[in-house]
Amino acid sequence: MAEGSKRQSFLGKQFAKHSTRAKERVLRSLGKADETKDKIFDEYVQHFNKQQAAASKLHKEINKYIQCVKAMSAASRSLYGFLREVYEEDWEGYNELNDLAETGELLWDDYQQRLTEQVYNPINTYQISFTDVKGRIAKRGRKLVDYDSARHNLEAVQTNPKKKDDGKIAKNQDAFIEAKRLYDELNNELLDELPSLYDGRIPLYANTFQITFAAESTFHGELSKVKNQLNDIMDKLAQAAAEGTYNIARQAGRDSDSYDSQPSPQLPSTPEQRSSLAKHYNVALPNDSKEDEVKHNEVMSAPSATPEDDTEYSVPRSSMENGDDEYVVGAVGGVSSNTYEEVQIGAQITTDTSQVPSSEVQAPPPGNSNQGAVAMEIAAPSQPEEELPPGVLYKVRATHKYEKMDTDELSFEKGEIILVVPYDDPEDQDDGWLTGIRETDRVRGVFPENFTRKL
Q1: Which of 131, 258, 260, 246 is nearest to 197 (CA)?
Q2: Max Cα separation, the chain?
Q3: Which pLDDT tens digit goes with each residue over 155-181?
Q4: Is 327 exposed, middle or buried (0-12, 13-18, 19+ CB in 10 A)?
Q5: Measured between alpha carbons, how far is residue 61 from residues 58, 72, 114, 119, 240 in Å?
Q6: What digits encode the pLDDT tens for the residues 230-265?
Q7: Which of 58, 135, 173, 240 is the most exposed place for a label (fewest CB within 10 A)?
Q8: What's the CA gap between 400 and 418, in Å, rounded?
Q9: Packing angle, helices 166-199 and 201-242, rounded to 10
């Protein structure tokens, strides 16, 4: 019961206080009540607002700078990894190159850590301090309204010509003194703190950029030494390659005993072999007439000739454009053995296969040693594309680990899948940044694009 009564009393006082302040503000806007002015404090508040805007922008720029350093570090690490992967052990400076690559990666890591600990964290703390000061400035404004309201009430009671109530005057006098005390305490604190905070911006800027430039200078100086040593290794490697140090010795000719020749595949010679092959590839065989067999043997036993030889021989040419012959297994060049014409030895023999479906037998290219071999082309079934959830533009895979720097960013491990979605407001999108949802737990945030690879 007592607790409920106290709560009602507290709520009643709060309501009365808010009503009094609202009434005072309305009277000010109508010009019926004067307002206590403090030009010095107003000037300090202007400086504070300007300083807060600059601190917010500096925090954002430092964050972007560190993100770029992280991206360059990841790119450098990837480049060094490729170099170490392709650099063979017997090449010039193999061990030195690996040591230098590790040194370069350590330099990038140390540079990032120094920027984060000595630049970003102090700027973040500096920016957070503005929130507390801004809250006290707003509280000082409310106390000023209470002070003016108590002053106006006291003046109204004291100057009332009809009735003068000493008890009421004393009550308003006490309220005025209390309101003035609360206002003066907070106002004096801010009058001391705001100038000191504003003057502190200069040492902060100097220290921030001094650390940034010194860290960058040291980093680039040490990294340039690593690059120069890597350049010397590449010079030695190029010189050794020019001298033929790493050239591979030529192998012996084909007639040498060290050359293991493989016999060429033989064409099916017996009807049983031809029938089995035709059944396997689902093609038709012509009638085994003696005339076709004689013609086939004549072609296969044609004497060898050189391009300078003018002897002409009969070779089969397909007549598929007539649609009469099947595609024959065992025919020369993969063509029908029913039609022949005279051609010059050394000339290119072409076959019209425009009517042969791509999924059926295709003739081998000219110059193939297996003139009678049958080439098969099997059309692989196309795989359907994976459907994306509604609102998802595409998927990406993280190529590097990323730790978020702000609350709206997205952290992820290397190899995680992220669903890329459009920005709620396209004007908020920064270059090189995407909005995505972690596929594992559906957490949403922005992340740098160069830490991922599109799937």
Answers
A1: 131
A2: 144
A3: 877 877 677 777 788 888 888 899 889
A4: buried
A5: 5, 17, 16, 11, 47
A6: 999 999 999 988 888 888 754 444 444 444 444 445
A7: 135
A8: 13
A9: 30
